[in-house]
Every structure is written in C-alpha cells, then in structure tokens.
Amino acid sequence: MLRIECGARHDHLLATAMPMQNLALIEKSGFSEVSAPCSACYFRFKSALRDMGYAGAESTEAGEAPAELAELRAAVDARMGYAYQNRLRVLSVLDLLTERAGVQRIAARVTTPLRALRVVSYYGCLLTRPPAVTGAEHAENPQQMDALVAAVGAQAVDWSYKTDCCGGSLSLTRTELALALTRKLLLAARALAADAIATSCPMCHVNLDARQSQLGLDFQIPVLYVTQLMGLAFGLPAKRLGLSKHLVSTDSLVKRISAS
Fold it and tell me: Does some domain include residue 101?
C-alpha cells in the first residue's frame, strides 16, 4: 500500500511550503488580501508567515538564528520557484466582516432583529491562539463575533468557553476525546440558557452540530454560522441559508424569530 504524507505533521519545510505556495499564487495574481473561511487554513497561512519571519520580529522562535530563518526562506522560495514579497494580508471571516463590511453597516441592514435569541459565540482554538501567530488582540476573550451577534439584535451571552477546543481535529484519531470536549461546550451553553451557538469555523460547526446525537444528552442546541444569523436578520429565507441541512433542527429557532 502506498502511503502519501502531505508533510504538515512531520516535515517543517513541507508544512511551511504548502501554505506559502498558495499565498504566493494569490500574491502573484495581484491581490493584497485573502480571506480563509476555514479556521485551520487560516491558521496554517498565519503559521507559515510567522515561520518565514513575515509576521514581525516577535513571531520568530526564541533563540532562532537569522541564518536558520534565511535558510528556510531560501528553501521554501526554491520549492515555489518564486520569492515571496510579503504583500498579502491574511484575514479571517470575522476580520472580513468586522473590518470590511463593518459592524455598524451590518446592523443597518437588519430587517428582522433576532431579539428572541440568546447566543453564545464560539471561536474555537485556531482563530486567536497563539497570539504570536494570529496577531489577535484579545486571544482569550475575542469580541468580533459577539459584536456581530449583537449587531443583528440577538443577546450576545458572555461565556468562558469561546476559545476552548471542541476536538474537531481529533474526530477520527481520538473520537472519545472529541466527544468529551464537545459535551463540555454544549453543557456550558445549556447552563447559560443559550438558544444557539454561533461559529465561523466549518470544522467546529460540523463537530458541534453532528456530534450532538452521539452524546446521549437530553437536549439539543442549534449551531449556526454567524453568517446564517446575519442572513436571518436580513430577512433571508431559512432554506436559502441552508438551515434545513443542519443535523440539529433549526426549525424552532426560525419560528421563534418569525413570531418575535
């Protein structure tokens, strides 16, 4: 049997070169910014830039010699056949919404305020940490998604689990651990009487939505992308937003919004 390794787990050069090659293609196409909807992709982009020394002096490992950094850059550029110019900024979806669209402009578009909903914002473990990689201003208590939730009229419920890991990356290798981490988050949201969990990470969404039926809990909590909450507040139909495709039903949530 042929086993193929992508290099992301064992080989630092490959783990750096792969995301850098994508960034180089985007840079060569003339773009100055790229948004990565997937939190894991966002983290790999930011990690590669850090390891290449493009995220500021504070981003290099303590004790890393400039010669080693130059050697890595040279090796990666040789693999790509291109010398990266560091003209590209990597944005998360939350960066894109809060900085480019703007919280106030989003609030101004609301036609159906989600006043009936108590929502906890779940960022996951890759969007903000470690701050030396992501550059997050508030790594342990981010506020971007909370601001978006409040902008669409819902009550943004503060909680202590917004950046805890849900175990999404362990779903196949350590399923029991992934279930335990997911259970902890759902119980915490339930304790706060949350009507929904908002997220922006596809892997977190799948884990929190799909795993609920495996946990034997006596409740279920809908898990929505923050963009779906925005769509509901903008008056878009639930079907158009893909809410019927969730494994945890969102029907009662949608009815509550319509009745409010």
Answer: yes
Cα 30 → chain centroid: 25
Same domain for 148 and 78?
A: no
User: Alpha-carbon distance 13 to 75, whole Å?
Assistant: 8
Distance CA 67, CA 81 (A): 20
List, in sequence order, every residue forming a beta bridge with 161; answer none if it has no partner: none
**What is the C-alpha to C-alpha distance for residues 229 and 214, in angstroms, rounded to an integer?**
25
Tens digit of pLDDT per residue, the chain (260 long)?
333 333 345 589 999 999 999 999 999 999 999 999 999 999 999 999 999 999 743 334 444 557 888 999 999 999 999 999 999 999 999 999 999 999 999 999 999 999 999 999 999 999 999 999 999 999 999 999 999 999 999 999 999 999 999 998 888 889 999 999 999 999 999 999 999 999 999 999 999 999 999 999 999 999 999 999 999 999 999 999 999 999 999 999 999 999 88
Residues 97 and 66 in one domain: no
* In-domain check, residue 5: no
**Beta-carbon contacts of residue 162 (< 8 Å; ≥ 6 apart):** 120, 121, 122, 123, 141, 142
d(CA 230, CA 233): 5
Whether 79 and 102 share a structural domain: no
Distances (CA, A) of 128 to 115, 164, 174, 219: 28, 11, 23, 29
Instruction: Please identify, among 38, 63, 90, the residue that sits at the C-terminal boundary of a domain.
Output: 90
Number of domains in the chain: 2
Give the Cα separation of 225 and 204 in Å (integer). Answer: 10
Rounded distance, CA 48 to CA 50, Å? Answer: 5
φ/ψ of 208, rounded to 5, equals -75, -35
